[in-house]
Every structure is written in structure tokens, then in C-alpha cells.
Amino acid sequence: MPSLDWVNRNQAEHTANQVPYHLLNFESFYGSIDHSKNNLIIQGDNLQALKALLPLYGGQIKCVFIDPPYNTQNAFEHYDDKLEHSQWLSLLYPRLVLLHQLLAQDGFICVHIDDKEGAYLKVMLDEIFGRQNYQNTIYLQVRYADKTLKEDMAYHKQIEHLLIYRKSHLSKPNRPKLSANNDKFCYSITTNETPSEVVLMGGKQVEVFKKGDYKIVKHDKGFNEGLKEIWASGTILDGNSSGRFFRDYLTGRVEQDGLGALYRVPNIGDDIYEYRYFTGPKRAGATKGKYYQGVPLDKLDQTHKHVPIPNFYDFADRFGNCRNEGGVAFRGGKKPEEYIRTILDIFSNEGDYVLDSFLGSGSTAATAHKMRRKYIGIEIGEHASTLVIPRLESVVKGDTTGISGDVNWRGGGGFSYHTLGSPVFDEQGFLHSDVKFKDLASYIWWLETKTPLQNIELNTPFLGVHNEVAYYLLYNGVLGDQRPNGGNLLTPKVLKLLNECYKHDGKRIIIGEATRIGEANLEALDIEFKQIPYTLHGPQVSKD
User: Alpha-carbon distance 330 to 323, whole Å?
Assistant: First the structure.
């Protein structure tokens, strides 16, 4: 049983598979041609666009950041946010399924939402991405306490949140770093040359110094040779070798050694010293003591240390002042670049792909561009061309708003603008006439391997090897006896050429319009022939 149910759920489950693959039409590029190939803005329905991206970018997106409609039952200038609850669920479900397929194995998806539909979205993400892959909810203050949206509202909407999921156990966030200055290692200890006595404890020759025979000095700053003071109590007594030594051998020794005794224990710990200092209770009736350890050996050269990722950020001032960031005005839902920068810093690195399929005014793309990420943005509305394109053009030219000052942005790079083209299959179920070899090769490779095709050669039928199986595509006269409609035949002559030029010891799959080699002969050669379009995973077409 699914964990979340709604009207037309069954239809929503099948939508991602049933939506047809479309081609992407290149319209124009801006800035550097080389950079524009990696940065895509697509205008069109994001469901169809996400499906179109699968053969090209499946399993390659490091960070998905989306800000879907909250379903507030309000209408805004650039989009309508009024859907019936089950419609909203059916809108999100297939898109999240496709985003899951686009996400890299070490990737993350970050979904910004408020409490209107947030609880239902959490359950849906648990189902699609796996509850075990839920990472955290980051809470965001987006308005000041005295900022009222509407006077007739019974409750103030001050907090929104970001749901974080990983693709798999390979996903590792970039935790914040703090300077590892060893401030707490600020003690030094000096003793008399001769201990009061030497006692065998736990197989160790422990030197005992009475009160007054040693000095413990605390310094203003920590240093690599300094010692850190730690109470030997609670879970420490069971948690490490020093705690256990105090528990097993030093507890109760106050009667023999007196209050405030110091013990120098050899061969314990993992710091630069060959011993560790312990102190017993310093006042009558006390039982607790302390020990002093040096900087661990594996942290001596450490200049920074990682700390946990916060789950609360106050961006109220940024949300309140981002309306005109990027030189484009966008009322109702615009996110500040500083907020997106914070998220991309944690869940991506320079050169990674970032995807936003609810692009709005282009904040994610603009931020990713300035942070030297590759990006794909999808927006259905006219503001894809009236807001997003001008904003990114400004970024290429050196936009000074948003995070530009913080990241020392001076301009550069480029991006390309695309629209949705023809479906791969026409209404009769045959390959559309617009489909070129590169398009079909990418499409077939994704269907067969669920990985994107790399380094497509336009003049060779050999697509590559996956799981020890070699794939070949005969189409549009690339090799073989071309038919008038653009297909290719697999003939003995063509097979001879394949054997001579693209030999593979193992199973081969050859895709073409038809074959003139018998099935028994192909089977003997460990070749499987797949006919275009009948055995492709597109619409079913009668062969008659």
C-alpha cells in the first residue's frame, strides 16, 4: 500500500513513464559558446522538459533546488497558485520521479515549501527517494515577526522550510568549517624532578605527585604543545582509555595519595606525549577527577574543523529586499541569491550540475552561474524570455546585485536558450522526421542502459559498451544500405563492416530499420537485432 493516497494517484504514478520524449530545440546562445553548452535555459512544460533531459543528463545532476508552488490558493502576477489538493499532489509526483532519475548517485534534492502542503510533500519524497535518504529539514525565517502579510490572517507565516534528501549513501554534503585553533589546549604542567612514589597500576609504572609538587598553568591561547582539561566523569569513564583508567585504578585513591594528587601515566592516549596526566579529587567528599590530553596526532596539522550544518537560518532581511535582484522585478516567491548560495555551497561544488525546474525569475541559475556551477533551468511562463534571459545576460556582463560582491563576480561565461521541440515519435508512432542520429542515439542509449551517452560520434554506428554488451545504431545513412525514409538495413555487407571496424568479443545489440540476416544466424553470432521503431520503448505500432 502506498503511504500517501489521493484521487487519480494511479494516473500520477504512470505519468512519468507515459509522457513522451521530446527533442530540445536550440534557439540561441549568450556569451561564451563553450560555456553556453553547459548552461541551459529551457522554456516549456517542466514535465516534458525533464523527460527530454533524461537521455542527455540522467544521473548527472549534483543538486536539484526547486521552489514549487505552495498551493496557497492565491493568484500572482507570473503564476497561479490555486490548485485542488489532489491536483497539486498529481502535479508534483511525476516531476519528482523524473528528478530522482536525473539526480547523480552522490546528489541531493532540496525542496523549498511552506506548511500548506509541506507535510504531504515530505511523505511523497519519503516514498520516491526513500525514507532512509531523508537528511534534514532546514527552517528559514523569511519574514520579520512584525511583518504582517494580511491583517485578517489568524496566524503569522514567518517560517518556511527546505526538505533535504540524498540520492544514496554516496551523497556527502559540504559541512561548514571553522578554524581549528586548538583554543582549549591551553594548559601546561610542570612537576618536581622526583615523584613522591611510583605505583604499578594496570601494568603501568604510574608516577604520583603530591599536592604542591606540581603546577598547572592556564594560558591565554591554545597551542599545539598545550593540554586540554577534561573531567573524568559520566560517559567518559566508559568511553575512552583515559576514562577507563581513571575508573579502574584512580577512583578511591584519595585515601592513599591525599587530595589534589597528580598522576603521570605512561603509554596512554594518541597525542605527542608519551604519558597522560590525571588529577584526583581536590576537596573532601569529592569523587571526580580530571585528565589532561594533548592535541591528537591526526589533528596536529589541521587548520580547520568541520561542524554540523545548521537547521535554522534567518534570511528575513534578504527575502524582504530581493525583489529587484538581478534587475528584474518578481512579486510573490522570489528567493534571494544569498539563500541559494548557502544551499549550493553545502550541496554542490564548482563544475557540478544544478537543476531548477521551477525557475521563476532565474535566481537559481543566476546564483549558480556566479558560483561557477553548470546549470539547467526550466520555466513554462513567458517570463522565461522576459525575465530569466535578460537577468542572465546581465550576469554574463557583470551584474553587481545579489551575491556578486561576496563572490567577486566580474562577469563572463555563457548560456543557451532552448524550447521544447517535436516528440521523438509522431502521432502514428513512427520516428518523427526531425529526429537526427544524435537524438536517436542518445534516446536509445538511455532506454537500454539508463545512463547518458557520452562522446557521440556522428559518423559511426558504434555507440559504446555497457555491461559487456556493445550497441550499434544504423540510422540516417551512417552505415549500411540506406532506405528512402532514412532507416538502415542490417545486411551481410554491413555486418562485415561492423566486424572489421568495430569488433567486439561478446554480445552485440544492433538497432536498425530491418535485417536481411536470419534470426538463427544472428543468434549464433550472439547478436540481438532491434527494429526501429517497433522494439523501442515508444508507442506501440502495428507492423502491418
Answer: 6
Alpha-carbon distance values, 507 to 310, 478, 480, 525 (Å): 51, 22, 20, 8
CA dist 517 and 490 (Å) reads 7
What is the Cα–Cα distance from 224 to 222, expressed in whole angstroms?
A: 7
pTM of the model: 0.77
* Distance between CA atoms of residues 307 and 456, nearest Å: 43
C-beta separation of 121 from 162 below 8 A: no
273: Cα separation from own chain's centroid: 42
**pLDDT number for residue 329:** 76
At 16 the three-state DSSP class reads helix
Phi and psi for 406 in degrees, rounded to 5? -70, -30
Residue whose C-alpha cell is 559541512 = 175
Non-local CB neighbours of 544 within 8 Å, separated by 6+ positions: none
DSSP classification of residue 485 = T
- Sign of the four-CA dihedral 490, 491, 497, 498: positive
341 contact partners, CB below 8 Å, separation of at least 6: 367, 371, 403, 406, 407
Using one digit for the tens of pLDDT, what is the confidence trace for 408-465?
A: 999 999 999 999 999 988 877 788 888 888 888 999 999 999 999 877 666 688 999 9
